[in-house]
Design goal:
Layout lengths: L2 H14 L6 E3 L6 H24 L7 H11 L11 H10 L34 E4 L5 E3 L5 E3 L4 E3 L6 H4 L6 E4 L8 E5 L12 H9 L4 H7 L3 H4 L2 H11 L26 H7 L20 H15 L3 E2 L5 E2 L17
Length: 337
């Protein structure tokens, strides 16, 4: 039995048993067009995750460009006993346990993001995720602490102020309950952000390749690949924080600095800057490694969509013309719950 068959057999199993895991949208905070828009973007995010898994197959089309993208985000570790970049993505996205890992290894027994692909009404179950469109469910108590009245639990002090964390430049916020029987929550602002609809890839690739976003990119220190399919990319970023994906971190650029926006490994440039970090070298902890950084995974999935849609991502995160004309067909939102 070859590796090609094993990989897609495992992916098929993850999808087959997806009914055990799920996601849902809060009916109180997300209503009308906002709910339908968010639902489409969530499905788009799951499509992108599946495409990223398929892109890691050795026989996939556009493999040189996929390898270049992956190499710009995660370097191969010199120690063969440590998880490789492709193994890390397959573990967090599809729940594929890296071979030869000892019990209790950080990528051990994660169901993976794809295990949550089915939508349910109401509250999901253990290791699942629920999406909210505002922070109305939070109540500030007399002692200054915050309570999530949907989860019915107190937000730990180290999690910060949920109203402050989800606003301004922050597009979404993930909270993983310390109670393992409860679901993870993702609070976003779909109704306040008018991003392009998922699936308009051809026009977005052409405009970015022509340099339309140069001023935005220069001002905010992001690259075109960071802006492509932005909202569903954010959803993927947040999904990697959930328990099913093994709870990634937002790695610090300066390990001795503060946990604040300017010091987090957000965006292609910062992800590229930390790609060579190793365990046990310098002051780097596991939370600061590229294999554990949320945006590294989100950018890889978004980059795969660009490559599959006829574009190419260069070493600086710019979207350019494809170097290979052979591409997978692109489908916007094929999944139906």
């Amino acid at each position: 039995m070859d590796n090609h068959f094993i990989k897609f057999f495992l992916l098929a199993l993850a999808m087959m048993f997806g009914f055990c895991k799920a996601w849902s949208i809060d009916q109180n905070s997300c209503t009308g067009e906002t709910r339908e828009y968010l639902r489409a973007q969530i499905r788009c995010a799951f499509d992108a995750v599946e495409a990223a898994v398929q892109a890691l197959d050795p026989d996939a089309d556009g493999k040189p460009e996929i390898d270049r993208l992956l190499g710009n985000l995660m370097a191969l570790p010199p120690d063969p006993s440590y998880v490789s970049p492709s193994q890390a993505i397959l573990a967090r996205f599809a729940g594929q346990r890296p071979p030869g890992r000892p019990p209790g290894f950080e990528f051990d027994n994660n169901p993976g993001i794809l295990s949550m692909r089915n939508e349910v009404n109401g509250n999901p179950g253990t290791d699942d995720v629920k999406f909210y469109c505002n922070t109305d469910r939070f109540e500030k108590l007399a002692d200054g602490r915050w309570r999530d009245n949907d989860l019915m639990e107190i937000v730990p002090d180290e999690s910060g102020n949920p109203l402050k964390d989800c606003g301004g430049l922050t597009m979404a916020y993930t909270y993983v309950s310390e109670d393992s029987s409860k679901w993870s929550t993702i609070t976003g602002y779909a109704q306040e952000k008018k991003w392009p609809e998922c699936g308009t890839f051809g026009e977005k690739i052409k405009s970015m390749a022509a340099g339309v976003f140069d001023n935005i990119v220069t001002k905010y220190k992001f690259t075109p690949v960071d802006l492509f399919s932005l909202f569903d990319k954010v959803i993927i970023h947040e999904l990697t924080h959930t328990r099913s994906a093994g709870q990634t971190w937002d790695s610090l650029m300066d390990p001795n600095g503060k946990y604040e926006l300017d010091n987090l490994a957000y965006g292609f440039k910062n992800c590229h800057a930390i790609r060579d970090r190793r365990t046990g070298e310098g002051d780097f902890e596991d939370s600061e490694l590229p294999q554990n950084n949320a945006d590294t995974y989100a950018i890889f999935a978004s980059g795969v969509r660009i490559i599959n849609g006829g574009g190419s991502v260069d070493d600086e995160g710019k979207i350019t013309k494809p170097t290979n004309q052979k591409r997978w067909p692109l489908v916007a939102v094929p999944f139906e719950a």
